[in-house]
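Table S2 (continued). Query chain:
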Amino acid sequence: MIVLLKLLFAHLLGDFILQPTKWAKAKEQLKIKAYQLYIHIAIHFALVMLFMWNWNFWPWALIIASSHLIIDSLKIYLQTKKNARLLFFIDQLLHLLVILTIWVLYRQDVLAWFQTVDQTTFTQVMLWTLTFVFLTKPLSIAVRIFISKWTPDTANKEDDSLESAGEYIGYLERLLIFLFIVIDHWEGVGFLLAAKSIFRFGDLTASKDRKLTEYVLIGTLVSFGSAIAASLLFKYGLALIS
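Corresponding output:
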């Protein structure tokens, strides 16, 4: 389990946290000629090796990095405005399948090591960290891409809001949901949803835009639903480890 968590954590950091938006745009414009693509792949290789902290793992890390290059290259050549949303999720699914395959193949070699070394605490820390990271930028990007199909024109106009404020509000609300569920206080999730609804009521009423209202509602429900699902999955994983 710890190997899988390490590989997933390396993927989240490499694909979301350590990949600037301008790199993604450069890859879309220059495709395989973009040097950012190869830096991105090198970062993935380095992260896998860093988290595994085992030089003998380099062939597996190379397979992960090579598959990442192939998958990303196919994505940037096949991607259009119409299928960008779908390809994002297919891209992530393929990366996940590669990681799961590597884990299944590799775990046989380290099974004896797991039997002699108590890794429970470290595994729990990795699970906490992985969930925390996932609930921030990776999930924020996934939600934004998922609801992009319904983005109204008014949602793209400039306003008086703080720069990136909405993104960080999303981080905080999902982390609070996670906290409430972990400590078994579901009423806190309801309170948070009610508080956000009241907060947005004035803006949506003033705008008198039904499409914007529906767009905000979809985004909120997807964000909350994803955070709840991730939190429940965390509790299930924690129960398996303990």
